[in-house]
Amino acid sequence: MTLHWNYLALWLLCIVGALQPIKSSEYIGRPIPRHDKWSQAIKGDYIPMQFYDAMRSAENSKLDFQNQVRNFREHLQRNLTMSNVLSLGHENQLNTQHQRTKLHELSEFFYAAADAARIFARDSETSYEFAKNSSYTLLLQLRQIPSTQPIPVKMLLTNYFAEMEFFHIMFSEIIDEALEYTQNILLATQKTFTYYADVQRFVLQNWNFKGDVGCCQEYMEFLKHYSDQIFKCAAGRGLNVAFDVFAMTELTSKYVMRQLEFRIQRLFNCLYLGSYEIRCKFLLNAEKDFEMLFTKIEELEIFYDLRMKNGRVSALRQRRQNHIEEAAPTGVKAQDNCIPLDFPRSQMHKSLKQCFYSITEY
Ligand SMILES: *[C@@H]1O[C@H](CO)[C@@H](O)[C@H](O)[C@H]1NC(C)=O
Ligand SMILES: *[C@@H]1O[C@H](CO)[C@@H](O)[C@H](O)[C@H]1NC(C)=O
What we know:
With 362 residues, the chain is mainly alpha-helical. Helix content is 75%, strand content 0%. The protein has one domain. The longest helix is centred in the middle third of the chain and has 56 residues, at 151-206. The radius of gyration is 30 Å and the shape is rod-shaped. The N and C termini lie far apart (60 Å). The chain binds 2-acetamido-2-deoxy-beta-D-glucopyranose (NAG) (2 copies). One 2-acetamido-2-deoxy-beta-D-glucopyranose binds at residues 48, 50, 133. Keywords: Signal. Residues 1-24 form the signal peptide.
């Protein structure tokens, strides 16, 4: 598209150059100097590369995170099952060593998943920031328009800029909404996973597990059940919504950037080449020219409402302030929404408690 416009612009330039050598000689009669802002503008690479880079890394860290948590239940079942132990017969020593390794791996899994959540949170935040930033950068391109336009054109331009600026504000607001929602979900998930992994590690290190076959079996069943519950709570619907919101926002952002770029390119071309009546018609009705873009972000808003549910966002917004931001994500002994009170002590049956020599409070 960009290429196409470049060629079109060049082609038009030649024609106009040939037809109106005197009028346009100021720009066209001589080779365009390299540092002429105006000529830079008409070349038209308006969307900052960082925008695409940021989108790409966020997309990658989303995939990493999704891969990390995919098939969790199956892995949980497979890893924490006693069939291996039984099939190995009487080599109890070996078996429990094997089971201990598996228990250790379970907490490692939650640490890794927490880290993947953190990285996705970070990269998606960057990509959202760049989407807003790029929209603004595009807007700033318009400053390069020489102020030597005829008065009526100037007025139309002012109107057009105002519309574009308004669009930028609306776009930024909706991006902020997505940003807050996904950040809250992801950071809460990260926090729960980390806390849960900390508890498991603490128990293994400090409670002095007996580790015979019976105890292994019971503790594994216990962990299977609670891991499943806690995982469902921390990485359930909310996380899927965050993934969807991210994907949809990304798609819309790319569309919006291309549309803004197209508008700027067209504007530069029309001003550069003169003959406003023909090429600058869109200036006459800025509102109509931006209609499609506003429709696009309205659609995004509807999508958010459907997926996030009304009212939820502002509640989260408040929680974020008091709660998530202040908490350092690792090793914090804060109670978590997804983890039952006084876990795991209160949830253990007497027989499981007897599998530990020294139960202490976490
Ligand atoms: C299961 O074990 C594998 C290694 O054998 C490990 O990579 C994975 O994270 C474990 N998954 C769970 C849920 O414990
Ligand atoms: C936007 O990005 C540009 C680099 O592309 C940077 O110079 C500028 O400071 C950024 N602005 C904001 C508000 O982040």
